[in-house]
Amino acid sequence: MFRTKMLAAIGGAFLATASMAVADIFHLEATISYRERILLPEEAVLEVELLDTSRADAPSIRMASQRFRLGGVPRRVEIAYDSDLIDDRHTYTVAAKILLGDEVLFRSTTAYMVLTRGAPDKTEIVLEAMPVQADMGDADDQSIYGETWTIYEVTGRLLVTEDLPVMMIDEEGNFGLYAGCNNFAGSLTAEDGVLTMPAAFAGTKKLCEEGKMTLEQDIIDALSVSTGYVRNDQILAFTNDAGVTVLRMQITE
Protein backbone atom coordinates (compact mmCIF):
# COMPACT_ATOMS: atom_id res chain seq x y z
CA MET A 1 0.00 0.00 0.00
CA PHE A 2 2.77 2.37 0.98
CA ARG A 3 4.70 1.44 -2.19
CA THR A 4 1.62 2.13 -4.33
CA LYS A 5 1.14 5.57 -2.78
CA MET A 6 4.83 6.33 -3.22
CA LEU A 7 4.74 5.37 -6.91
CA ALA A 8 1.61 7.46 -7.41
CA ALA A 9 3.28 10.46 -5.78
CA ILE A 10 6.41 10.06 -7.89
CA GLY A 11 4.30 9.67 -11.03
CA GLY A 12 2.32 12.80 -10.21
CA ALA A 13 5.47 14.80 -9.59
CA PHE A 14 6.94 13.57 -12.88
CA LEU A 15 3.82 14.59 -14.82
CA ALA A 16 3.80 18.02 -13.17
CA THR A 17 7.46 18.54 -14.02
CA ALA A 18 6.91 17.37 -17.59
CA SER A 19 3.96 19.72 -18.05
CA MET A 20 6.04 22.62 -16.77
CA ALA A 21 8.77 21.80 -19.28
CA VAL A 22 6.44 21.86 -22.29
CA ALA A 23 6.79 25.14 -24.20
CA ASP A 24 3.68 27.27 -24.66
CA ILE A 25 3.64 27.37 -28.47
CA PHE A 26 1.65 30.05 -30.27
CA HIS A 27 1.37 30.81 -33.98
CA LEU A 28 1.87 34.09 -35.81
CA GLU A 29 0.08 34.55 -39.13
CA ALA A 30 1.77 36.30 -42.06
CA THR A 31 0.56 36.87 -45.61
CA ILE A 32 3.41 37.38 -48.07
CA SER A 33 3.19 39.01 -51.50
CA TYR A 34 5.18 41.06 -54.00
CA ARG A 35 4.07 43.58 -56.62
CA GLU A 36 5.82 42.18 -59.70
CA ARG A 37 3.71 39.93 -61.92
CA ILE A 38 6.27 37.21 -62.45
CA LEU A 39 6.27 33.46 -61.89
CA LEU A 40 9.19 32.25 -59.81
CA PRO A 41 10.87 28.84 -60.22
CA GLU A 42 9.39 25.91 -58.29
CA GLU A 43 12.64 25.68 -56.31
CA ALA A 44 12.12 29.13 -54.78
CA VAL A 45 11.79 29.03 -50.99
CA LEU A 46 10.08 31.47 -48.63
CA GLU A 47 11.84 32.16 -45.32
CA VAL A 48 9.99 34.01 -42.54
CA GLU A 49 11.57 35.14 -39.27
CA LEU A 50 10.28 36.57 -36.00
CA LEU A 51 12.88 39.01 -34.67
CA ASP A 52 13.43 40.92 -31.45
CA THR A 53 14.36 44.39 -32.73
CA SER A 54 14.13 46.24 -29.42
CA ARG A 55 17.63 47.69 -29.45
CA ALA A 56 18.50 50.10 -32.23
CA ASP A 57 22.19 49.88 -31.29
CA ALA A 58 22.45 46.08 -31.48
CA PRO A 59 21.74 43.30 -33.99
CA SER A 60 18.26 41.81 -33.94
CA ILE A 61 17.66 38.52 -32.13
CA ARG A 62 15.99 35.70 -34.04
CA MET A 63 13.10 34.30 -31.99
CA ALA A 64 11.72 31.91 -34.61
CA SER A 65 12.40 31.02 -38.24
CA GLN A 66 10.67 28.75 -40.73
CA ARG A 67 10.98 27.95 -44.43
CA PHE A 68 8.09 27.13 -46.74
CA ARG A 69 7.50 26.08 -50.31
CA LEU A 70 6.51 29.29 -52.04
CA GLY A 71 3.79 28.21 -54.46
CA GLY A 72 1.87 31.30 -55.53
CA VAL A 73 1.39 34.68 -53.92
CA PRO A 74 -0.17 35.94 -51.80
CA ARG A 75 1.14 33.15 -49.57
CA ARG A 76 -0.32 32.74 -46.09
CA VAL A 77 1.89 31.03 -43.50
CA GLU A 78 1.99 30.47 -39.75
CA ILE A 79 5.19 30.76 -37.71
CA ALA A 80 5.39 28.84 -34.44
CA TYR A 81 7.02 30.62 -31.49
CA ASP A 82 7.44 30.09 -27.76
CA SER A 83 5.27 32.67 -26.00
CA ASP A 84 7.33 32.31 -22.81
CA LEU A 85 10.20 34.04 -24.63
CA ILE A 86 8.14 37.10 -25.54
CA ASP A 87 8.68 40.16 -23.35
CA ASP A 88 5.87 42.74 -23.46
CA ARG A 89 8.46 45.50 -23.03
CA HIS A 90 10.28 44.52 -26.24
CA THR A 91 9.59 45.23 -29.90
CA TYR A 92 9.13 42.36 -32.35
CA THR A 93 9.03 42.43 -36.13
CA VAL A 94 8.56 39.90 -38.90
CA ALA A 95 11.01 39.71 -41.80
CA ALA A 96 10.65 37.59 -44.93
CA LYS A 97 12.64 36.77 -48.04
CA ILE A 98 12.40 34.53 -51.09
CA LEU A 99 15.51 32.57 -51.96
CA LEU A 100 16.62 30.60 -54.97
CA GLY A 101 19.55 28.63 -53.64
CA ASP A 102 21.74 31.20 -51.89
CA GLU A 103 20.42 34.11 -53.94
CA VAL A 104 17.87 36.48 -52.39
CA LEU A 105 15.24 37.36 -55.01
CA PHE A 106 12.82 39.31 -52.81
CA ARG A 107 12.95 40.52 -49.23
CA SER A 108 11.07 42.72 -46.80
CA THR A 109 12.54 46.20 -46.39
CA THR A 110 9.99 47.59 -43.94
CA ALA A 111 9.64 46.81 -40.24
CA TYR A 112 6.38 44.87 -39.71
CA MET A 113 5.70 45.06 -35.98
CA VAL A 114 3.79 42.27 -34.21
CA LEU A 115 2.75 40.89 -30.80
CA THR A 116 3.62 43.71 -28.38
CA ARG A 117 3.09 47.45 -27.91
CA GLY A 118 -0.38 47.24 -29.41
CA ALA A 119 0.76 45.37 -32.53
CA PRO A 120 -1.37 42.45 -33.85
CA ASP A 121 -0.52 38.74 -34.04
CA LYS A 122 -0.87 38.75 -37.83
CA THR A 123 0.67 40.86 -40.57
CA GLU A 124 0.72 41.40 -44.33
CA ILE A 125 4.20 41.73 -45.83
CA VAL A 126 4.98 43.15 -49.27
CA LEU A 127 8.43 42.11 -50.47
CA GLU A 128 10.73 44.17 -52.67
CA ALA A 129 12.73 42.73 -55.56
CA MET A 130 16.47 42.64 -55.04
CA PRO A 131 18.91 43.43 -57.86
CA VAL A 132 20.05 40.18 -59.46
CA GLN A 133 23.83 40.02 -59.83
CA ALA A 134 23.62 38.95 -63.47
CA ASP A 135 21.41 41.93 -64.30
CA MET A 136 23.30 44.55 -62.35
CA GLY A 137 25.44 45.58 -65.30
CA ASP A 138 28.46 47.79 -64.71
CA ALA A 139 29.51 47.79 -61.05
CA ASP A 140 29.97 51.55 -61.28
CA ASP A 141 26.20 51.88 -61.77
CA GLN A 142 25.67 50.30 -58.34
CA SER A 143 28.37 52.27 -56.53
CA ILE A 144 27.21 54.65 -53.82
CA TYR A 145 30.49 56.60 -53.87
CA GLY A 146 30.92 60.07 -55.31
CA GLU A 147 27.32 61.13 -54.65
CA THR A 148 25.39 63.43 -52.36
CA TRP A 149 22.34 61.69 -50.91
CA THR A 150 19.24 63.30 -49.40
CA ILE A 151 17.74 61.20 -46.60
CA TYR A 152 13.94 61.13 -46.73
CA GLU A 153 13.01 58.11 -44.57
CA VAL A 154 14.39 56.93 -41.21
CA THR A 155 13.34 53.52 -39.80
CA GLY A 156 10.14 53.56 -41.83
CA ARG A 157 9.24 57.16 -40.94
CA LEU A 158 8.97 59.64 -43.81
CA LEU A 159 10.59 62.96 -42.97
CA VAL A 160 8.44 66.05 -43.38
CA THR A 161 10.75 69.06 -43.32
CA GLU A 162 11.99 71.70 -45.73
CA ASP A 163 15.65 70.92 -45.02
CA LEU A 164 16.11 67.17 -45.33
CA PRO A 165 19.30 65.58 -43.93
CA VAL A 166 22.13 65.18 -46.41
CA MET A 167 24.88 62.55 -46.57
CA MET A 168 27.87 63.18 -48.84
CA ILE A 169 30.05 60.19 -49.79
CA ASP A 170 33.27 60.81 -51.71
CA GLU A 171 35.07 58.42 -54.06
CA GLU A 172 37.13 56.99 -51.18
CA GLY A 173 34.16 56.21 -48.94
CA ASN A 174 34.65 59.18 -46.62
CA PHE A 175 31.30 60.68 -45.70
CA GLY A 176 29.84 63.75 -44.10
CA LEU A 177 26.37 63.98 -42.58
CA TYR A 178 24.31 67.07 -41.80
CA ALA A 179 20.80 66.86 -40.37
CA GLY A 180 20.19 70.49 -39.43
CA CYS A 181 22.42 70.95 -36.39
CA ASN A 182 25.75 69.14 -36.04
CA ASN A 183 28.17 67.89 -38.67
CA PHE A 184 29.27 64.25 -38.54
CA ALA A 185 32.01 62.45 -40.45
CA GLY A 186 33.38 58.96 -40.90
CA SER A 187 34.51 56.39 -43.43
CA LEU A 188 32.53 53.47 -44.85
CA THR A 189 33.02 50.64 -47.33
CA ALA A 190 30.31 49.46 -49.70
CA GLU A 191 30.80 46.54 -52.06
CA ASP A 192 28.44 43.97 -53.59
CA GLY A 193 25.58 44.98 -51.31
CA VAL A 194 27.64 44.70 -48.11
CA LEU A 195 28.06 47.86 -46.06
CA THR A 196 30.60 48.41 -43.28
CA MET A 197 30.10 51.46 -41.09
CA PRO A 198 32.58 52.90 -38.56
CA ALA A 199 32.26 51.91 -34.92
CA ALA A 200 32.05 55.59 -33.94
CA PHE A 201 31.28 58.88 -35.67
CA ALA A 202 33.21 62.11 -35.30
CA GLY A 203 31.02 65.18 -34.96
CA THR A 204 30.46 68.62 -33.52
CA LYS A 205 28.55 68.98 -30.25
CA LYS A 206 26.33 72.01 -30.66
CA LEU A 207 23.06 72.24 -28.75
CA CYS A 208 20.10 72.76 -31.05
CA GLU A 209 16.34 72.37 -31.06
CA GLU A 210 15.25 69.11 -29.47
CA GLY A 211 13.57 67.88 -32.66
CA LYS A 212 16.72 68.35 -34.74
CA MET A 213 18.91 66.63 -32.18
CA THR A 214 16.48 63.72 -31.93
CA LEU A 215 16.52 63.33 -35.72
CA GLU A 216 20.32 63.38 -35.73
CA GLN A 217 20.45 60.62 -33.14
CA ASP A 218 17.87 58.55 -35.01
CA ILE A 219 20.00 58.73 -38.17
CA ILE A 220 23.20 57.89 -36.29
CA ASP A 221 21.44 54.91 -34.68
CA ALA A 222 20.24 53.74 -38.09
CA LEU A 223 23.71 54.08 -39.61
CA SER A 224 25.20 52.16 -36.69
CA VAL A 225 23.13 49.04 -37.48
CA SER A 226 23.40 49.31 -41.28
CA THR A 227 25.10 46.26 -42.77
CA GLY A 228 23.80 46.22 -46.34
CA TYR A 229 22.62 48.46 -49.14
CA VAL A 230 20.46 48.32 -52.24
CA ARG A 231 20.70 50.91 -54.99
CA ASN A 232 18.01 51.18 -57.65
CA ASP A 233 18.98 54.00 -60.00
CA GLN A 234 18.78 57.21 -57.92
CA ILE A 235 17.29 55.57 -54.81
CA LEU A 236 19.50 54.06 -52.09
CA ALA A 237 18.42 51.96 -49.10
CA PHE A 238 20.58 51.01 -46.12
CA THR A 239 19.46 47.78 -44.44
CA ASN A 240 20.20 46.09 -41.12
CA ASP A 241 21.25 42.47 -40.60
CA ALA A 242 17.62 41.35 -40.87
CA GLY A 243 17.34 42.96 -44.30
CA VAL A 244 14.99 45.67 -43.04
CA THR A 245 15.51 49.14 -44.49
CA VAL A 246 16.59 51.62 -41.82
CA LEU A 247 17.39 54.56 -44.14
CA ARG A 248 16.15 55.59 -47.57
CA MET A 249 17.72 58.36 -49.59
CA GLN A 250 17.90 59.73 -53.10
CA ILE A 251 20.54 61.51 -55.11
CA THR A 252 20.46 65.22 -54.35
CA GLU A 253 19.56 67.24 -57.42
> What is the averaged pLDDT score?
83
Question: How would you name the oligomeric state of the polypeptide chains in this document?
Answer: single chain
- Looking at CATH, which topology of the largest domain would you report? Lipocalin
Measured as a percent range, the helix fraction is 10-25%
What count of structural domains? 2
What global shape is seen?
globular
Question: Which architecture name of the largest domain does CATH use?
Answer: Beta Barrel
What count of helical segments does DSSP give?
3
The helix-strand sequence is: HEEEEEEEEHEEEEEEEEHEEE
Taking Cα atoms only, what radius of gyration do you get, to the nearest Å?
23 Å
Structure classification: alpha+beta
> First CA to last CA: what distance?
91 Å
The portion of residues forming beta strands comes to 35-45%
Total number of β-strand segments? 19
CATH class of the largest domain: Mainly Beta
Give start-end ranges of low-pLDDT stretches.
Answer: 1-10, 14-20, 133-139
- Biggest sheet, open or closed, and with what strands and sense? 9 strands, antiparallel
Describe the structure.
InterPro entries: DUF306_Meta_HslJ, HslJ-like_sf, Lipoprotein_YbaY-like, Pilotin. Residues 1-23 form the signal peptide. It holds the Pfam family META. This is Putative lipoprotein. The protein has 253 residues and is of the alpha+beta class. It folds into 2 domains: 26-129, Immunoglobulin-like, CATH 2.60.40.2990; 147-251, Beta Barrel (Lipocalin). The protein is 15% helix and 43% strand. Strands 9, 10, 11, 12, 13, 16, 17, 18 and 19 form a 9-stranded antiparallel beta sheet that branches. It is globular and about 50 Å long. Residues 1-10, 14-20 and 133-139 have low confidence and may be disordered.
